[in-house]
Write a structure and sequence with these properties.
Number of strands: 0
Strand content: under 5%
Low-confidence stretches: none
Distance between the termini: 49 Å
Order of helices and strands: HHH
Radius of gyration: 15 Å
């Protein structure tokens, strides 16, 4: 599976999104689905699952949006100080 190393990295990063983030719930869902597919692939159930490409793409979109949210909050807090 060519997406396996990227999938593991993405799983770790999605787990680190703060629970206070508006993206936390979606990140949790993508992480759960991705984890299930990776486990199935490790058990040899399928050689390649086309859904994994979509999950990886969406997972990175969530990471990007969560990072922008965090940056915006940080800037707002600095202005308030």
């Amino acid at each position: 599976m060519k997406n396996k190393p990227v999938s593991f990295l993405l799983l770790e990063r999605l787990e680190r999104i703060s629970a206070d983030s508006v993206w936390a719930h979606q990140a949790s869902g993508v992480r759960g689905s991705l984890l299930k597919i990776v486990q199935e692939l490790e058990q040899g159930q399928e050689s390649e699952n086309p859904e994994i490409t979509l999950l990886v793409s969406y997972g990175f979109q969530i990471l990007e949006k969560a990072a922008r949210e965090k940056t915006a909050l940080s800037i707002t807090r600095k202005k308030e100080s």
